[in-house]
Amino acid sequence: MARGPATFKQADVTRALRGVAAAGVQVARIEIDARTGNIVMLTPRAPNVPDGPYDMWKAESSAR
Q1: Which regions in the chain score pLDDT beneath 50?
Q2: Where do the domains of the chain lie?
Q3: Rounded to two decimals, what is the model's pTM?
Q4: Range list of β-strands (E), the chain
């Protein structure tokens, strides 16, 4: 049984990783969907950082 064409190549991952590093972002994990070829780079999340206005309001309200 022959394989189909590759949906992503090592060069694609390397190019994406270099682009993220050039932006000064740290990569915690890389996820690749072998079926579609989507490359997702996840960054480490800073602890206790509010995500949005509601989270900021909630953090300020509970601090009292």
Answers
A1: none
A2: 10-62
A3: 0.59
A4: 29-32, 39-42
